[in-house]
């Protein structure tokens, strides 16, 4: 636990601006301890445990209750607007945190602010009684959650040495799987116990995120950026700095593109899993008395169990071997194969097999690709901004995937099975392209 002390006991920053700037920007070389990894995992869970069940269960259920006839199109619009909000917040939060001179440090104010805004969005969604209000609530929530999550991602290049980034990214990736399972189980149970009361489910999630992220921000110590080290703010220069030339930094460019394609394929594939079980697998007919939400939760549990091994094994192995690219390529290909299973075999056993493979593939991918991107960042001064630009691959994929998925399904509206075949075939092709574009990266093995 040496990496964590209460903020009130943190050592004062050097009065010498040059020393203070060097402390903020120098590459991390001190190994982090288990306490750091545990607290970082819990902090990552603070957003994911709340955001994932809202996106996968509560918002689709609210949309289905409000407009069952146009649910696919409406969910696509809501998810797209939320994705756009996430793009904006991901870009701005990282860059602005690089310039923050608060006594709390550069990152903590943004993490805390994002968590509080997520809580406000949950309250808003709890009483949303129209498609418009659901769209506004989810957009606010995704904006705020991405502020918190994108700044948390900068903690790894800020504090973790290169030789530990595989396992650190694996532990952070493990938070994704754990959050998905715990959040989905919790919300499914609450909805069942409260007879589908959305407000009860939203209020149940509210304190969880605040407690988890609050613990991290209380004990995480980071150096303060001196005010004199912050350059004058000029809007034109600030906006221009978001462009990272792929000609000057080709590894960064390829890392961004491959992440975008794989994540786009992943989100296209899982974004309509609720409706896939409802309309193609006919889950409620196969298992009378069980809800589709229970089926989604079961599949998420299956993916979690398989990812528990792959995320830690891949992260640890990539650190030991000093190699990232083979793990990213193989996991991307395996993810594509799992999506092809969903595309061409429409039955419950095949769906289970597909989610076993999705868990293995995405667990390994999320661990090692996250470590890879931290090794291609162009400048120490812009870690937050550059991680934000990388984060746009995630936000942009979330933004495009719902509309792209809805289009793939609607092209064959007269045949639901064919529509979902086209959806998962498209998702698989995207992941295969992402795997291919890992090869040109030269600066990372």
UniProtKB/TrEMBL annotation:
Cited InterPro entries: MFS (IPR011701), MFS_dom (IPR020846), MFS_trans_sf (IPR036259)
Transmembrane segments: 36-60, 72-96, 108-125, 131-155, 167-194, 200-220, 256-275, 295-315, 327-346, 352-377, 389-412, 418-439
Species, as recorded: Ktedonobacter racemifer DSM 44963
Protein name: Major facilitator superfamily MFS_1
Major facilitator superfamily (MFS) profile domain boundaries: 39-445
GO molecular function: transmembrane transporter activity
SUPFAM superfamilies tied to this protein: MFS general substrate transporter (SSF103473)
Localization per Swiss-Prot or TrEMBL: Cell membrane
Matches recorded under Pfam families: MFS_1
Membrane topology type: Multi-pass membrane protein
GO terms for cellular component: plasma membrane
Keyword terms: Membrane, Transmembrane, Transmembrane helix
Keyword Cell inner membrane on entry: no
